[in-house]
Amino acid sequence: MLDLKFCPNCGESSLSYNGRKMHCTSCDFVFYNNTAAAVAVVIKCKDEVMLTRRNQEPGHGKLDLAGGFIDFEETAENACKRELFEEMQIQVDESKLKYICSIPNTYPYKGVLYHTMDLFFEYEVTEKFDVILEEHEISDTIWIKKEHIDLNEIAFESQKLFFEKYKLQ
Predict the structure, then answer these.
(1) What is the DSSP letter of 154?
(2) Where are the alpha helices (H) located in 11-156, listed in sequence order?
(3) How far is Cα 140 from Cα 152, in angstroms, rounded to an integer?
(4) Collapsed DSSP state (helix, strand, coil) of residue 150
(5) Which of 105, 114, 140, 146 could make a disulfide contact with 158, Cβ separation 3.0–4.6 Å?
(6) Could you tell me the pTM of the whole model?
(7) For residues 68 and 154, is the Cβ–Cβ distance under 8 A?
(8) What is the SS3 string spanning 134-161?
(9) Rounded distance, CA 115 to CA 158, Å?
């Protein structure tokens, strides 16, 4: 976590951080650094899946699955739908999203290492389609046979672990 020293409650320089929580020894303020929930969607068409190419850090230029953080009071399925629309203008039917598994991960962003729980979903389509990219986030999309996915090209460790198992299905 950032090198925080001052308590946001009392302002004293008595804030300590043990990796899980921040604690102020002056006023007993406690802030827990809980896991953030995120979604990743495998868009599948026959024996191929759609991957995106990241256009920002972390993992700039690496392959990724569409997805992102779940907002407050949002279901994982609704986050999948929102993220697919925001990133690629894809309209999906939430009822056709198939939950596959969850894998813990980390996401470094602006000096803070966020611990995440990545929830993986599959969305099957009958034919490939064009997308309108949010170019700030994604530079390209590719369709690839899942057995041809090079794990060294994948941006995040949780997705590498996911594809190790998913490629065998």
Answers:
(1) B
(2) 76-88
(3) 18
(4) coil
(5) 105
(6) 0.89
(7) no
(8) CCCCEEEEEEEEHHHCCHHHECCHHHHH
(9) 11
Residue-wise pLDDT for 54-100, tens only, equals 999 999 999 999 999 999 999 999 999 999 999 999 999 999 999 99
Structure tokens at 135: 């170019």
Residues in the chain: 169
- How far does the chain reach from its first CA to its final CA, in angstroms? 38
Cα–Cα distances in angstroms (integers) from residue 27 to residues 5, 14, 24, 122, in the given order: 14, 9, 6, 47
Of 3-7, 49-53, 101-105, 155-159, the range with the lowest mean pLDDT is 3-7
What's the pLDDT at 18? 84
Helices (H), 53-149: 76-88
Beta strands 112-125 and 36-45: pairing type?
A: parallel
Encoded tokens for 122 = 């599959």
Phi-psi region of 145 (alpha: psi -120 to 50; beta: other; left: phi over 0): beta
* Residue 42 identity: V
Which amino acid does the sequence have at 155? A
Token code pair at residue 120: 């993986």
Comparing C-alpha atoms, which of 86, 7, 84 is closest to residue 42?
Answer: 84
Q: Which two tokens stand for residue 21?
A: 């929580």
- Other CB atoms within a 10 A radius of the CB of residue 96 amount to 12
Q: How far apart are CA 118 and CA 96, in angstroms?
A: 19
